Amino acid sequence: MVTLLGGHPSLKIGTLLETEKHDVGDILQESLEHEKAAAASYYELLKVSEGKSILLEEYAREMIVGEELHLDEVNKLLRKSGDVKPFRS
Ligand SMILES: [Fe+2]
Q: Which of 2, 29, 34, 43 has its CB 3.0 to 4.6 Å from that of 7, i.e. a possible disulfide?
C-alpha cells in the first residue's frame, strides 16, 4: 500500500512494549490494548480517506474488520470460563 501511494516503506520499527509482566492475563490485556489501538488507527484512516480514495476507504474497512475480529478473540480469551458477557478491563 505504501509503494502504491508512491512512498517508500521504512524498515524502522516502533517502540516495543515491555511491561515485564509475564502472566498470561497481563499479556492478553496488553494484546487487547494493542488491538484497540490498531482498530482506532484504521478508523482514523477511514475518516480521513472518506470521499477522497475508494482504495484507502476499502483498505481501512477491511483492516477494521480484521482488528475487530482480533479484539473479539482476545476478549474471549480474557473471560472467565462460562462467562458470555464481554470482558471489561
Ligand atoms: Fe490485530
A: 2
Predicted TM-score (pTM) of the model is 0.85
Separation of CA 80 and ligand 1 centre (Å): 22
Rounded Cα distance between 86 and 68, Å, is: 13
Among 75, 2, 36, CA closest to 44: 36
Chain segment 19-50, per-residue pLDDT in tens: 888 899 999 999 999 999 999 999 999 999 99
For residue 67, the CA-to-ligand 1 centroid distance in Å is 4
User: What are the residue boundaries of the structural domains of the chain, listed by start?
Assistant: 24-78
Are the CB atoms for 39 and 71 separated by under 8 Å?
Answer: yes
Residue 35's nearest CA partner among 1, 78, 2, 3 is 78
